[in-house]
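Give me the fold.
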Amino acid sequence: MRKSALLISFVALSALWSGEVVHSIRFEGLLHLSPTLAQEMVGIYPGDQLDMEKIDRAIKKFYEQGYFEDIWVEEEGGELTFHFVEKPLIAQIEVVGYLEDKKEELPEILGLKKGDIYDERKIAKAIAKIKEYARSKGYFDTVVEVESEKIGENSVKVTFVINKGEKIYIDQLTLCGAKRFDKDEIEDVIANRERNKLLGWMIGFDSGEVKLDQLPLDSARIKNKYLTEGYLDVEVSDPLLRVDFDNYKAKLRYHIHEGEPYRVEKVEIRLLQPVVDEKELMEELRLKPGKTFNIEKMRKDIEKIRIAIADKGYAFVKIVPDFKKDPERHTVSIRYLVNPGEKVYIRDVIISGNQRTLDRVIRREVYLAPGDPFSYTDYKESINALKRTGFFEDVQIEQRRVSPNEMDLLVRVKEMPTGNIMVGGGYSSYEGFIINAAINDRNIFGSGINGSFSIDFSSKSLRFNIGIYNPRIFDSEYSLGVNAYNTEFESYDYTQERKGVSVSVGRKFTRHLSGSLTYAYESNKLSDVTYDSIYFQEGRYTKSSLTPTIIFDNTDDYFLPRHGIAASASVEYAGIGGDEEFIKYYLKGAYYLGLEDYLDYDLILRLKGKIGYIEDRGYLPVFERFFLGGIRTIRGYQIASISPKDEEGRLIGGREMFVTSAEASIPLNAQKNMRMTFFLDYGGIGEDSYTEITRSGTGVALEWVSPMGPIQLIFAKALNDKPGDRTASFEFMIGQRF
């Protein structure tokens, strides 16, 4: 404003002296504001007299927009000209040092992005945000320098040079007044913990790093710990953190007044409207008279009441727990005041975010439609059903209230790649390097139809497969799939050529239960048999089989489920014509449990199992028998290498088998969907007994939901291998649910 003050004074004096009238108004150098808007901000129009106060107010308004570096005004012969010098635009942002590997997160961290106006105040805020972010990660005394470089007529490059500070470690945690819980028990629930003196440097042990963003929440976590044991009068002070900046060590202290634990004397539910049976609700509650009060049980009881009433259509139910404490007897009575409100109906279901997937493909997985009463169970299961399709990276359904008894459901999906052309490879201890090529799409043209074509080649095998599957024919409950395959495989003791085709028809019985009936016809040829026996007979054989299957799946995601069960049972009857005659019974299942809600950490536990039995009805070829080993059964052993043997020592397969697996999966890079999984496999196989041969393996797997599908790198070790076993320490797989 260096020119502005002088010029405004001159204009004002001229106006007062001569009563100058404005004939026209011009704006020079204006880019971000339109002349029409600028004219309104000035408030002076042709024919008006010059008004110094209006011009002064207008200049202040212009500066408030944040666009301008300098503004001055000139008047000549009744023509009023506003001159503007706009601030440059940020054309490029670069970070050197700390945060340079977080390019995707930078706009949020800095509060700046390319295209923003360069403003010293915004730069100062960005510096403050960087320091705040660093402190939240435990780094103190972070130094940030900013360099700006002009790279165009009105654009600059901004470089943040960040030297992250030092981490502060808690070398002493003091809990004054804590008697009910020891330090270890309280440290289980808080984020800021005392450093393990010996192993603090090792992953999995308490490092003691200060997590400043979590510090205000730790007092509440300690209080919540006491409330789970009935200490309703507990008081926990704010954290007192004393830091020695000479060595960046800290002492953390809390003052705790515990009080006494309370027992539940009475529990009741008071419904303002009799929309559900109170007695039935009471039976479902976990917090009962005579028990020690537990805040977590109370929260779960409130949620049970909420769901039970919301399932009746009362979406906006309000539940308030009313406490009546008796400090002398240390008892508490709880009354849940429940106001269901009005019954809510769905007005509309609005779908967004789908660039490729057809609306009808999404809508058929949403269990609530216009005109339906709201149901919380239907709402949650709609989200899970959409995630189980495998089409979407993220699914959210927002409840938008539009009237006291109506709501819209806003279904927002974030699509993930469902099709790819892939040329890659892997390695198997037995087959060596495997080269594979595939074209597949689980969602062809957004129709929900799954199509695939693949070919694998190694020194021991050539596999070809093509298939198409429609899970909802004409959006009905029926499915149809056709598959054709051709395999040549050189096993340890024979060479097999296998050609076949299958047709499958299925139907959904409920949301989670479906069934199918598959007919398959195969032509198999055995050659290069090392020694002829009843198990290995050279020649060509045909199979004609019918397989009914029942499938249950209530998991919450397709690739990476965190909750639910996926199970199937099938019976293959071979003997409808053809040479092969047998009945194969097969059952498999997986249970998924995510512990993030309990541990505040994305740990997923998986329990998996398979069991099979074959009844020989006349002819059971060796390649139809069970074999264990490999990524799908017992890791740490070569594929199909665990099996009973004949008198020549050849693998002949078994008629009975089982496999169990326990897995614990932790995140490596949440943004890139990368995880690490520790596993333990155990299984058995035999001719007349499930435990005739038992083996186990353990190891770690790197899992990545990549743009070309899920990828697993498995590093395994056989635990109880015997002489002659074929072990495998590394395996690789693309395209299987974890």
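Residues 256 and 595 are 28 Å apart (CA to CA).
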